[in-house]
Design a protein that fits this description.
It contains 5 helices and 12 strands. The protein is an alpha+beta fold.
């Protein structure tokens, strides 16, 4: 607090939802209700958002006439088969083996960007860091995994939206506008619309074609457009 040499006003506080709550359908409305009932306010709003993480979990990516594992897609991308459109700053993590590099994470955008993206092996993260059964339960309920014995690697495409993404609009192809406030996230339908817009703009690639400049190469989005019944 400022009275003790800090930066927060003495009557201010910072709140963060525990991870488990984020896997409950009404976590944002319940947070909003809690803030309203207890009189928390920031200027004219109930509260101010500093960060939202929006993600989707899956096992395959649509490329060409079929689909591939995210690991193979990242390998081809790092090998120069594809170019990334937007967010040219890239960080990749891999394990080196006798048959080459096995990538398990790639990130785009700088740490200070208002929007940054990360594609990573969520199953591997849970196995190496901390197992969270409620995440696996969500995969089973949604059909991402068939049953408890299914050991298919589940990957996650995650976008980090910071305060600077306020008044963000997807693109010209969809008439959708969303202000990054807690009120906008009360409607779960907005999650899918926002994520689809992020995919089209920030998960767009181009197929490398010899010496042809990147901006002239054929573009594609290796991710399906989510429907309103997405889990």
């Amino acid at each position: 607090k400022k009275s003790a040499g800090g930066i927060l006003d003495d009557r201010a506080c910072s709140m963060r939802l525990v991870n488990r709550a984020c896997y409950q359908a009404l976590c944002i409305p319940e947070l909003w209700q809690f803030l309203r009932d207890h009189g928390f306010r920031y200027k004219d709003n109930i509260c101010a958002l500093s960060r939202i993480d929006l993600c989707c979990d899956f096992t395959r990516l649509p490329v060409g006439d079929g689909d591939v594992s995210p690991a193979d897609f990242i390998h081809d991308y790092m090998a120069g088969v594809y170019y990334k459109v937007n967010q040219p700053r890239v960080r990749a993590y891999a394990t080196e083996r006798e048959d080459g590099m096995h990538y398990h994470q790639v990130s785009w955008g700088s740490p200070s960007s208002s929007v940054s993206a990360k594609l990573y092996n969520k199953s591997l993260e849970l196995a190496e860091q901390k197992m969270k059964p409620y995440i696996v339960d969500a995969w089973l309920k949604s059909g991402v995994l068939k049953d408890d014995l299914d050991d298919t690697a589940v990957w996650r495409l995650e976008y980090c939206l910071r305060a600077g993404t306020d008044n963000w609009i997807s693109d010209k192809d969809e008439d959708f506008y969303l202000s990054n406030t807690i009120d906008a996230w009360l409607n779960t339908g907005n999650y899918i619309k926002f994520f689809n817009g992020l995919i089209r703009h920030y998960f767009q690639f181009a197929i490398a074609d010899g010496d042809t400049p990147k901006y002239k190469c054929k573009r594609f989005v290796p991710f399906p457009k989510l429907s309103t019944d997405a889990y």
